[in-house]
Specification:
Layout (H helix, E strand, L loop, with lengths): L1 H17 L18 H11 L9 H11 L4 H14 L3 H21 L1 H5 L5 H27 L3 H12 L11 H11 L15 H26 L8 H18 L3 H11 L7 H10 L3 H14 L8 H12 L3 H15 L5 H14 L3 H13 L11 H26 L7 H26 L4 H5 L11 H8 L4 H14 L6 H14 L3 H12 L10 H17 L3 H14 L12 E7 L4 H8 L4 E2 L9 E9 L2 E9 L5 E10 L3 H11 L15
Parallel strand pairs: 1-2, 1-3
Antiparallel strand pairs: 3-4, 4-5
Length: about 675
C-alpha cells in the first residue's frame, strides 16, 4: 500500500512538473529519440517554461524548427500560436498546416509510445508526454477543420486519434467529439458527408450511440487508470459526456432527460450556464434563463467566438419589452469584439432589437452589415443556414414594417397615389422575400423540430418572427400542426404560445369567437410572467382588438387596444390597428406640426369614457430654437413614455412624423413621409 502511494506521489510530481496546465517542461527519464537525439534533447530542455499557449510560442517554434524540423514540437508550437491568434477563415486554414505536420511526425517517430496502455507507472511514465501532446495537436486540428467547415476532415482526425486507443484521452475526448461532429452536421446526409446517416433522427441516434460508447470506454480504461490516477478521476470524464448528453436531449426536447443531466453537472466546473439558460428559455422560464445568461457572461468571458449568452439575452430583452436594452448591449458587444467571430451574429441581434424598437432604418443598416460579413461559426452548433435564415427573417420583418409605416404616417393613404405607389413597391419586395424564405423553409429538414416548436435550442429567431413567415400560407395545415403541438408538447409554459398561434389562425378563418376564447385563456393564465412575457401579452391584446373590431364590439376593442399600447407601445405603429390617444397641448402650438400629427393614423379622442393614453405636448421657443416637451401617461397618470425635450430643426411636417413615433416610445427618427401626401 505504501509503495503504491509512493508511486502515485512520484507520478503526480511529474505531472506537476510537466505542466503548468500540462505542456511546458519535459522531465523524467530520457527518451530514446529515433533520430537527431542530441538536438531533440536540446529542444526538450528549451521547451521548459515556454507555454505553447503564450505569445512566446511563435519565436520558440521558429527556433525549434531551425534546430530540427523533423521533430514535431516546433510544428506543435507554431500550430498552437496560429490557432490562438486566428480570428477568421484564413487564420484557421493557416493553422491546419503546422498541426497536420506535427501529427504526422509524432505518429512516425513515437508510435510505440502512443500505443502504450498499462497500469504500470514506470511504463506509462515516458509515454504520457507523447500521448498528451498528441491529444493537444489532434484536438486543435479537429477544431480548425470544424471552424473552416470541413467536418469530414474533422471526423477523420478523431478516428485517426482513436486508432491509438489512449487509456486517457486528455484533450481529445474522441467519442464526445464524434457525437458533437455528427450533431453539428445532423441536417446533412451520407451523400454529403459519408460519416452521417440519411436523416436527422438517425444522425441524432448515432450521436447518442457515440456518447454511450464514451461511457463504456471510461469504464474499460478505469481498470488501468485506477492504479495511476487519483480515485474518482473518472468522474470528470463522465461529466464531459453528461455535457453532450444534455445538449442532445435539449435539442430533442426530451425535457426530463436533459434536466437530469444538467442536475448531475450542477456542482462541477463543466456546468455550462449558457447551455442551461438556453434550455430554460426553450422551456419558457425566461426569468431563470436571464439569471444564468448573466452568470455565463463571466464564465465565457474572453472566448474568441460567438458569445451565445449575449445573442440570446437580446431575445429576452425583446420578450420583456425592453429592446432598447438589447440595442445597448449589442453595441457594447460589437465594440468589444470588433470584426471577430460573433460580429455578424451581434449585428443580427442588434438589427432585431432596432426593429422591435420601431427604428426600421437602423435595423436595415445593421442587417446589411451582418449580410456582408463572413461569419466563422466557432464552437457552436449554429451554422451558416441558421445565419442566413435569421438575416432573411429580419429583412422580411423590416419590409412588413415599411408597409405599415406608410399607413401609419398617412391616415388617408388609400387616396394618395404616392402612398399607394410606395405600398405596391414594398409589397412586391415582400412577396419576393417571402418566396425566398419559404423555399429555404421547405428545404429545411429541421422545420418540424425547430420552427414549428417555436422554441428550440437551435432556433436563432424569436417565436414572434415565425408568425410573419407562415401567416400568409396554408392556414388549415398550420392550425392542425399547432393543435397537435399543444396536445403533445412536454413544456407547460410554452403551451400558451401555441394557443396564440391557433387563435391567429382561427382569425384567418374568420372564427373570431373561438379565437377570443383562446386569447382569454392566455391572458388569464396565472403562470404568465408579466415582466418577461410582455411581447406575448401585447400580441394577445393586439389579436383581441382585431377580433373585437371584426365583431364590431367597440368597448372590447378600446380596452384591448389600450392594453396593447401600455404593454408594448413600440409595436402599435406597425400593426393594422389605429390607436386611440387623448391630446393636451400647452403653450402656443405650431399649427403645422399639430395638423400633420393629426394626419397620422392615430385616433384622437376626447370622450373620457374611452380608455386611451394621455399625450401632453408643451411647445416653447427660444429665439430660433423650437422645442416640444412631450410625455404619455396611462389612465392612472403613470408615465409610459417618459418626459423628453425634442428640439427640431427640420421642416415642421417632418418633425411631426418624428414626434408621432416618439409618442410610442420610439426615439430614433423614422423616415419622414412626403409632406405633399
Amino acid at each position: 500500500m505504501l509503495r503504491a502511494a509512493l508511486r502515485l506521489t512520484l507520478f503526480f510530481i511529474y505531472i506537476f512538473l510537466v505542466t503548468p496546465g500540462g505542456l511546458q517542461a519535459q522531465v523524467g527519464p530520457p527518451v530514446a529519440h529515433p533520430r537527431n537525439a542530441q538536438k531533440r534533447y536540446e529542444i526538450d530542455a528549451k521547451r521548459t517554461g515556454t507555454d505553447p499557449e503564450s505569445d512566446d510560442a511563435l519565436p520558440r517554434s521558429r527556433e525549434f524548427i531551425r534546430t530540427d524540423s523533423s521533430y514535431y514540437v516546433g510544428w506543435l508550437y507554431e500550430g498552437m500560436y496560429k490557432v490562438n491568434h486566428a480570428a477568421d477563415y484564413l487564420g484557421y486554414k493557416n493553422a491546419i498546416i503546422p498541426l497536420r505536420r506535427a501529427l504526422a511526425q509524432i505518429e512516425r517517430d513515437y508510435a510505440r509510445m502512443l500505443r502504450t496502455r498499462t497500469s504500470d507507472l514506470m511504463t506509462y511514465f515516458p509515454a504520457y508526454r507523447f500521448q498528451l501532446d498528441y491529444s493537444l495537436v489532434a484536438y486543435n486540428l479537429m477544431e480548425c477543420y470544424n471552424n473552416v467547415e470541413q467536418p469530414q476532415d474533422a471526423y477523420n482526425v478523431i478516428r485517426r486519434s482513436q486508432r491509438w486507443n489512449f487509456q486517457r484521452e486528455f484533450y481529445m475526448q474522441s467519442y464526445n467529439y464524434l457525437a458533437w461532429t455528427v450533431h453539428r452536421n445532423r441536417f446533412y446526409t451520407k451523400a454529403k458527408y459519408p460519416f452521417l446517416k440519411n436523416s436527422i433522427p438517425e444522425n441524432e441516434q448515432l450521436a447518442n450511440a457515440f456518447l454511450d460508447s464514451a461511457f463504456k470506454k471510461i469504464r474499460t480504461d478505469k481498470r488501468l487508470n485506477s492504479a495511476l490516477f487519483q480515485p474518482g478521476y473518472e468522474e470528470s470524464e463522465m461529466q464531459s459526456v453528461y455535457h453532450y448528453k444534455a445538449m442532445l436531449y435539449s435539442y430533442a426536447l426530451n425535457i426530463d432527460s436533459a434536466a437530469r443531466y444538467y442536475d448531475r453537472m450542477r456542482n462541477y466546473s463543466i456546468f455550462s450556464h449558457n447551455n442551461y439558460a438556453t434550455f430554460l428559455s426553450i422551456c419558457g422560464d425566461f426569468r431563470q434563463a436571464a439569471f444564468h445568461y448573466n452568470i455565463a457572461r463571466t464564465q465565457d468571458q474572453g472566448d474568441k467566438r460567438l458569445q451565445e449568452w449575449a445573442y440570446y439575452s437580446s431575445l429576452l430583452d425583446i420578450y420583456k419589452g425592453k429592446p432598447e436594452t438589447g440595442i445597448q448591449n449589442m453595441k457594447d458587444m460589437i465594440k468589444a469584439s470588433g470584426s471577430t467571430p460573433g460580429f455578424g451574429w451581434y449585428n443580427i441581434a442588434l438589427a432585431r432589437c432596432c426593429m422591435y424598437n420601431g427604428d426600421v432604418a437602423e435595423s436595415e443598416r445593421y442587417i446589411k452589415k451582418a449580410e456582408q460579413f463572413k461569419e466563422v461559426h466557432i464552437g457552436t452548433t449554429l451554422g451558416q443556414s441558421h445565419y442566413d435564415f435569421s438575416i432573411n427573417m429580419i429583412k422580411l420583418m423590416n419590409n412588413i414594417s415599411r408597409i405599415q409605416q406608410v399607413k401609419f404616417e398617412n391616415r388617408n393613404w388609400l387616396y394618395s397615389p404616392v402612398a399607394l405607389s410606395g405600398l405596391a413597391q414594398q409589397s412586391s419586395a415582400k412577396y419576393l422575400l417571402q418566396y425566398l424564405i419559404v423555399n429555404q423553409f421547405a428545404m429545411n429538414p429541421e422545420r418540424d423540430l425547430v420552427i414549428y416548436r417555436l422554441f428550440s435550442t437551435e432556433s436563432t429567431v424569436s417565436w414572434d418572427e415565425i408568425w410573419y413567415l407562415m401567416r400568409d400560407f396554408s392556414t388549415q395545415f398550420f392550425y392542425q400542426k399547432f393543435a397537435q403541438e399543444l396536445k403533445d408538447d412536454q413544456r407547460p409554459l410554452i403551451k400558451k404560445y401555441f394557443r396564440l398561434y391557433m387563435a391567429r389562425l382561427q382569425m384567418k378563418k374568420n372564427n373570431y369567437t373561438d379565437a377570443e376564447k383562446l386569447l382569454r385563456e392566455i391572458l388569464s393564465d396565472v403562470r404568465i410572467d408579466a415582466e418577461y412575457e410582455k411581447l406575448l401579452i401585447a400580441r394577445s391584446y393586439e389579436a383581441m382588438a382585431e377580433c373585437a373590431q371584426a365583431r364590431k364590439n367597440k368597448a372590447a376593442y378600446n380596452e384591448s387596444l389600450y392594453g396593447f399600447y401600455v404593454t408594448y407601445p413600440q409595436l402599435l405603429p406597425f400593426s393594422e390597428l389605429r390607436p386611440n390617444m387623448r391630446l393636451s397641448v400647452i403653450g402656443t402650438p405650431d399649427a403645422v406640426i399639430v395638423d400633420r400629427l393629426k394626419s397620422c393614423n392615430i385616433n384622437w379622442v376626447s370622450d373620457r369614457s374611452i380608455p386611451a393614453p394621455e399625450v401632453t405636448l408643451k411647445f416653447s421657443r427660444n429665439g430660433s430654437k423650437k422645442t416640444i416637451t412631450y410625455f404619455v401617461t396611462d389612465k392612472s397618470g403613470k408615465e409610459i413614455v417618459s418626459r423628453e425635450d425634442y428640439t427640431y430643426t427640420e421642416k415642421p411636417e417632418q418633425a411631426a412624423v418624428t414626434l408621432a413615433y416618439r409618442l410610442f416610445n420610439t426615439y430614433k427618427k423614422a423616415p419622414p413621409a412626403d409632406p405633399k401626401q
